[in-house]
Each structure stands twice: as C-alpha cells, then as structure tokens.
TrEMBL record:
Species of the source: Dicentrarchus labrax (European seabass)
Keywords of this entry: Signal
One annotated Gene Ontology cellular component of this protein: nucleus
Name of protein: Uncharacterized protein
GO biological process, one term: regulation of DNA-templated transcription
Keyword Signal annotated: yes
Gene name as annotated: perm1a
Length: 64
C-alpha cells in the first residue's frame, strides 16, 4: 500500500503541468498520498516491533 501511494504521488508530480493554475491541486494530492503512506508504514513498524518484543518476553518452556 505504501509503495502504491508513493508511486501515485510521484506520477502526479511528473504529469502535472506547472503552467496551469491548478498545479497546486496535484502537489497537494501528492503530498497527502505520501504522508498517508508514511503514517501507514510507521504504524506497521510499531506493530511489528511490539509483536517481536512480545515473542522475546515469553520464551518457550523446555525440559531441564
């Protein structure tokens, strides 16, 4: 999902015509897409880190 948003933002910026007065809309859309992708990625990393930490806190019981 993150890569799709970043690719879309990149495409919008490449295809925007800077001579047109509505170019700010394309830039705004690209920025919102990129920020959404970054927020999603940060949330995913936090969830993965919490899951990894949880596994470390509960080691498997073994016969000694």
């Amino acid at each position: 999902m993150c890569l799709v948003c970043i690719a879309f933002a990149s495409w919008v910026l490449k295809t925007a015509n800077p001579q047109v007065g509505d170019a700010w809309k394309a830039v705004l859309l690209a920025n919102v897409s990129a920020l959404s992708a970054i927020r999603y990625l940060r949330k995913y990393v936090k969830i993965e880190a919490a899951a990894g930490e949880k596994k470390l806190n509960y080691p498997a019981l073994t016969d000694s």
